[in-house]
């Protein structure tokens, strides 16, 4: 994985020192809260219901074991012993003190990490396939490009005060696991007829209040031109995006207002003007960055069939094929029955870091499904790994299963939320396990957001729940048919809002319909398309 | 009835305005306000920029020393008052609170 | 009446723009105005950042001032966007002494600054490119032209070009490229002052060798019109003429290439006496396949290849460039006869500092060529 050089270190250190001064200026009164707020946000610091929240960037979801141990250290020293993994492949701490945050950032800088632009109207952490560099179906590894975009977008002097936040996702596989269809910019690595690597460019997707699937504005862009093209898109958006209405400020609104063709023409014109040597990625730099992401060496195959109880089921669900012989990808779901989705305590972090060192080339990934992934596990170590994970409640066989629930922190923590997400997720999880439904149902995604900002990605869930505030009461809207990856789709509302208890029952009922009516191997959306919403409606509303 | 709440600047903790125009994490010390004197009290609280962030009024009911948030934001304010109703904060045993 | 986004202000030499002006409108409005204020409605209004960069790109050279309720924390970024000054308007603004960092490195090229600093990716690339060139130079010391070009095309394929003046010795290099990598772009600077024989020879040679990728570089018509309307600049300032007709067009064209094949040889003498086969000029790699050939070996190669020769060689010219600055030489195969009577030996296309200056000059040509009827343009 990428290692900082002196330039990266100097830039991150300077930013950390700058933020320390800004915190002091706020404490002394030299900065008002109105002025300090956007500055703290672009350094990942929110003020939530009970405390500050610090969101630490995990660039494109890639972590070293050393970095994960540092995250555990921070959780123990400055927080309450745990962290929460987010749908942008980041981690957030719910209880840090403002006065400690500069020290936390210093610790992070020491292991090549930061919290820069994890919030604010800036370019956020670029997300990608958690299996990048390991997936068997990859056209090209997206991570070098994620890193180049990270550097280009970090402390960009022009794009720090955008109309609204800005999210970029890159996929390197035809089977998109990065949800590029619902990003401000979605990039797909493709190979041209001449065999050259380039990007297919999608713009204007997003979730939130107005969910939109991104439009393709370019079939092929040579890879070295990426930063020039991104500059052109961001410049058009920065100048023309709406700033008068928070809810109409995302690029998707601009793309819809201009029309995708007209928007594409504006971008192409600016691209022609801005492109040139300074923004063309030098071949040497592509080589330098790519060298950090070299393919892992071959592993050893299993010699004896594992006999540990539960191993086969775990292997069938949580272990994925790797492109290199003797290696496998192991998903570590943070979704034990009844647990808070995405939360991981400091001891578990340390354990996973140790296991990565022992069996997985010291590398860990965070997925947008709020799970951890060991991307390069030696196949011969799978049984030992399973036993140790199981002992720490980290071997629940539910990757991509119904109980692999995605959930935002909701009204228990978040200042923006209208309804609680975590208790609803926990109750659904318990019911799925206790009823045995989780084991029999096929792949189905359940995602819960506590407000319309859609951090829980409910729009693109097969079964989505959106918490709303209805006259002071928490009410949940149920949507069906959303898809995050590949052919992204926005879910449709099934019927009237439900209270928390009814929402839990409704989700379970929908999973049951799917489990009972799905043809063998059928995806949830296929079953829904074949049967229509009626059987689900009947199961939920009795009509 | 109303009281004033905010988050403390240095650590973000939930605090309530007290009778002596201070701030306390202890909700039992929260000031009681009538609709008539609420705005004046808020104006004074808003001057404490270096102690708290964005103080605001909330609706409450109950006796002195024991109140319950009411009104449209009652769920949110109840959660602020008593802490998260779910999540690892409640589940993790070895919590070390600074 | 002010048009949208343009606020006329009283001071004679200053124009104030707001973020809602269209870039095209802004570019027209600022022409010739000594100072432009860009007003920010609030410190979160980021439009002025992009606007400043666009005005700089369009050639605005006057003072750009950012005005509004901005933060001290934004000053560094504003300067990188092309602002000269920042006027912070805040009520009760307590003085804040802030360490602005003075960063030596930047992740992005400065979008609006007239003095482009190399971004981190280019700093790193240059370090690697230099080290790699040194390794290859050591490997190819004393090697044959074929070997040198093979090593170079393997390393720099797709970003390598050959510069050819189609002068006296050009044919040899072209033949070598045709032999080893015939699709290599051949860059020819049509200065407008070549001997007609050179142009004829160029076409003949391309065809004869089967090279198809000719790229003709011409000086920008508006620049010629402004700087050398009579076509006689060479009489008064030979350096400026080379700048206009060679250095600037080449600097623009070279953007796409990291390596250049040259026809330079050690026996040319002067600074070329120490030439390596593969060298680095601070930005690009120079491939000199003929570096080690003797004058005799060059002559033998010509003979063996039986190539058409530049017609002027018969007339005693050794090194052939533009007609005004080329004279017959006493010693064949030398650079004698170039810039006779001038105190120089090179046109400057291989001088990176000059190339950079030229590139900046190219970027500001709008201002230089625009007639100075500025008062009428100002919006009032």
Q: Superfamily at the CATH H level of the largest domain in chain A? A: Sulfite Reductase Hemoprotein, domain 1
Largest sheet strand order of chain C: 8-7-6-9-11-10
Low-confidence stretches of chain C: 357-380
Structural class of chain C: alpha/beta
CATH architecture of the largest domain in chain A: 2-Layer Sandwich
First-to-last CA distance of chain C = 8 Å
CATH class of the largest domain in chain A, please?
Answer: Alpha Beta
Molecular structure report:
- The complex is a heterotrimer of chains A (543), B (98) and C (380).
- Helix content of chain A is 36%, strand content 17%.
- Chain A has helices at residues 6-28, 33-41, 65-78, 101-110, 143-153, 226-240, 251-258, 260-274, 283-291, 311-318, 346-359, 382-391, 422-434, 437-440, 500-517, 524-531, 534-541, and strands at 45-47, 52-56, 62-64, 82-85, 91-93, 127-128, 168-171, 185-191, 197-203, 215-222, 319-321, 327-332, 343-345, 363-366, 372-378, 406-407, 446-449, 463-470, 473-480, 492-493.
- Chain B is an alpha+beta fold.
- A five-stranded antiparallel beta sheet of chain B has the order 3-2-1-4-5.
- The longest helix of chain B is centred in the middle third of the chain and has 11 residues, at 35-45.
- Mean pLDDT of chain B is 89; it is low at 93-98.
- Chain C contains 14 helices and eleven strands.
- The model of chain C is unreliable at 357-380 (pLDDT under 50).
- In chain C, helix 10 crosses helix 12.
- Helices cover 37% and strands 11% of the residues of chain C.
- Chain C has two domains: 6-117, TIM Barrel, CATH 3.20.20; 120-366, 3-Layer(aba) Sandwich (Rossmann fold).
- In chain C, the strands form two sheets. In chain C, strands 8-7-6-9-11-10 form a six-stranded mixed beta sheet. In chain C, strands 1-2-3-4-5 form a five-stranded mixed beta sheet.
- At the A-C interface, helix 1, helix 2, helix 5, helix 6 and helix 9 of A face helix 2, helix 3 and helix 4 of C.
């Amino acid at each position: 994985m990428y290692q900082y050089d002196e330039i990266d270190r100097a830039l991150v250190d300077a930013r950390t020192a700058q933020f320390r001064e800004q915190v002091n200026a706020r404490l002394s009164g030299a900065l008002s809260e109105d002025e300090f707020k956007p500055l703290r946000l672009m350094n990942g610091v929110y003020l939530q219901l009970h405390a500050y929240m610090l969101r630490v960037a995990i660039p494109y979801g890639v972590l070293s074991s050393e970095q994960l141990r540092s995250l555990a250290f921070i959780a123990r020293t400055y927080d309450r012993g745990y962290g929460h993994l987010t749908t942008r492949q980041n981690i957030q701490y719910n209880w840090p003190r403002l006065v400690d945050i500069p020290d936390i950032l210093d610790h992070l800088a020491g292991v090549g990490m930061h919290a820069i632009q994890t919030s604010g109207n800036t370019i956020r952490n670029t997300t990608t396939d958690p299996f990048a560099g390991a997936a068997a179906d990859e056209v090209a590894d997206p991570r070098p490009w994620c890193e180049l975009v990270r550097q280009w977008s970090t402390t960009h002097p022009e794009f720090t005060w955008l109309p609204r936040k800005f999210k970029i996702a890159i996929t390197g596989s035809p089977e998109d696991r990065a949800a590029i269809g619902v990003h401000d910019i979605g990039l797909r690595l493709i190979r041209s007829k001449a065999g050259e690597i380039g990007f297919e460019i999608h713009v204007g997707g997003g979730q939130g209040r107005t969910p939109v699937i991104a439009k393709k504005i370019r079939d092929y862009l040579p890879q070295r031109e990426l930063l020039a093209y991104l500059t052109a898109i961001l410049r058009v958006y920065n100048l023309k995006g709406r700033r008068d209405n928070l809810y109409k400020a995302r690029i998707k609104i601009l793309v819809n207002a201009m029309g995708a063709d007209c928007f594409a023409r504006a971008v192409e014109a600016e691209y022609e003007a801005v492109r040139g040597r300074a923004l063309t990625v030098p071949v040497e730099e592509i080589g330098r960055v790519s060298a950090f992401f070299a393919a892992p060496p071959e592993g050893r195959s299993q010699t004896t069939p594992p006999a540990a109880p539960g191993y086969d089921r775990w292997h069938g669900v949580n272990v994925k094929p790797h492109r290199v012989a003797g290696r496998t990808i192991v998903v570590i779901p943070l979704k034990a029955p009844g647990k808070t989705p995405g939360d991981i305590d400091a001891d578990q972090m340390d354990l996973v870091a140790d296991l990565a060192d022992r069996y997985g080339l010291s590398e860990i990934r965070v997925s947008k499904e709020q799970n951890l992934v060991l991307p390069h596990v030696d196949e011969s170590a799978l049984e030992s790994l399973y036993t140790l994970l199981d002992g720490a409640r980290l071997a629940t066989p539910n990757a991509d299963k119904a109980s692999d629930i995605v959930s935002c922190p909701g009204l228990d923590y978040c200042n923006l939320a209208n309804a609680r997400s975590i208790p609803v997720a926990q109750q659904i999880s318990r019911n799925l396990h206790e009823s045995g439904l989780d084991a029999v149902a096929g792949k189905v995604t359940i995602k819960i957001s506590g407000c319309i900002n859609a951090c829980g990605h409910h729009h693109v869930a097969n079964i989505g729940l959106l918490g709303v505030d209805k006259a002071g009461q928490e009410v949940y809207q149920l949507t069906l048919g959303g898809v995050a990856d590949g052919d992204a789709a926005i879910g449709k509302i099934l019927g009237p809002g439900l209270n928390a208890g009814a929402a839990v029952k409704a989700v379970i009922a929908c999973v049951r319909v799917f489990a009972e009516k799905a043809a063998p191997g059928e995806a949830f959306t296929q079953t829904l398309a074949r049967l229509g919403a009626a059987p689900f409606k009947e199961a939920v509303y009795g009509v | 009835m109303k009281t004033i709440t905010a988050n403390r600047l240095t650590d973000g903790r939930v605090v309530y305005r007290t009778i002596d125009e201070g701030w306390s994490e202890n909700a039992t010390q929260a000031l009681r306000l009538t609709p008539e004197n609420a705005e004046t009290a808020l104006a004074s609280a808003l001057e404490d920029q270096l102690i708290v962030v964005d103080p605001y009024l909330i609706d409450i009911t109950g006796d002195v020393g024991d109140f319950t948030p009411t009104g449209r934001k009652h769920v949110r304010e109840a959660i602020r008052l008593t802490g998260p109703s779910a999540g690892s904060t409640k589940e993790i045993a070895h919590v070390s609170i600074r | 009446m002010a048009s949208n986004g343009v606020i006329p202000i009283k001071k004679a030499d200053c124009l104030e723009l707001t973020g809602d002006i269209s870039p095209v409108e802004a570019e027209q409005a600022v022409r010739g105005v000594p100072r432009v204020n860009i007003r920010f409605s609030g410190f979160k209004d980021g439009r002025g950042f992009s606007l400043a960069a666009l005005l700089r790109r369009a050639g605005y050279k006057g003072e750009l001032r950012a005005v509004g309720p901005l933060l001290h924390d934004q000053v560094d970024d504003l300067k990188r966007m092309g602002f000269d000054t920042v006027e912070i308007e805040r009520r009760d603004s307590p003085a804040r002494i802030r360490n602005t960092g003075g960063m030596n490195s930047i992740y992005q090229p400065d979008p609006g600054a007239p003095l482009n600093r190399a971004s981190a990716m280019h700093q790193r690339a240059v370090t690697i490119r230099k080290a790699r060139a040194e390794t290859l130079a050591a490997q190819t010391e004393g090697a044959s032209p074929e070997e040198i070009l093979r090593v170079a095309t393997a390393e720099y394929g797709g970003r390598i070009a050959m510069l050819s003046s189609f002068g006296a010795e050009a044919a040899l290099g072209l033949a070598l490229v045709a032999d080893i990598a015939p699709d290599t772009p051949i860059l020819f600077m049509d200065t407008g002052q070549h001997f007609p024989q050179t142009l004829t020879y160029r076409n003949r040679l391309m065809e004869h060798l089967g090279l198809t990728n000719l790229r003709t570089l011409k000086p920008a018509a508006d620049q010629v019109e402004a700087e050398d309307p009579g076509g006689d600049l060479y009489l008064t300032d030979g350096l400026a003429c080379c700048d206009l007709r060679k250095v600037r067009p080449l600097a623009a064209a070279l953007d796409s290439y990291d390596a250049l094949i040259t026809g330079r040889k050690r026996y040319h003498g002067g600074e070329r006496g120490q030439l390596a086969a593969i060298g680095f000029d601070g930005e690009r790699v120079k491939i000199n396949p003929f570096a080690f050939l003797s004058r005799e070996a060059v002559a033998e190669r010509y003979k063996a290849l039986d190539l058409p020769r530049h017609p002027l060689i018969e007339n005693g010219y050794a090194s052939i460039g533009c007609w005004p600055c080329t004279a017959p030489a006493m010693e064949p195969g030398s650079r004698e006869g170039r810039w006779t009577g001038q105190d120089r030996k090179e046109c400057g296309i291989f001088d990176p500092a000059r190339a950079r200056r030229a590139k900046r000059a190219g970027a500001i040509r709008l201002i230089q060529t625009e007639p100075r009827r500025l008062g009428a343009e100002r919006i009032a």
